[in-house]
Amino acid sequence: MKKLILIVVALFVFQKWDSINAVINPLPDYAADHNDRVILYGTSWCGYCAKARKLMDENNIEYHEYDIEKSNKGKLQYDSLGGRGVPVLLINGEIVKGYNPQKILKLSGRT
What we know:
about 50% helix, 4 strands, Glutaredoxin, alpha+beta, four-stranded mixed beta sheet
């Protein structure tokens, strides 16, 4: 019985990890400044960054972009979000790592 309860708790934590992580590791203060916008952290050479730009342009999603190789401010914010690859998007206070069209559209209120 204890094993079953442990499995259920582990499954719950796994499913709700984004919400739990938001409480444990709140977003930095600058994220509140962009609460109603999308921020794209990317590079000029990244193919998935280009796909993310195209997706947002086609769906009339306003966004602000930081090229993390050219902007110190953008690089610092990217690092504070736990960025390890590009693109990283900050959408209404939620972090999207990588190119995920469904999540980008959902968080932007387009689906």
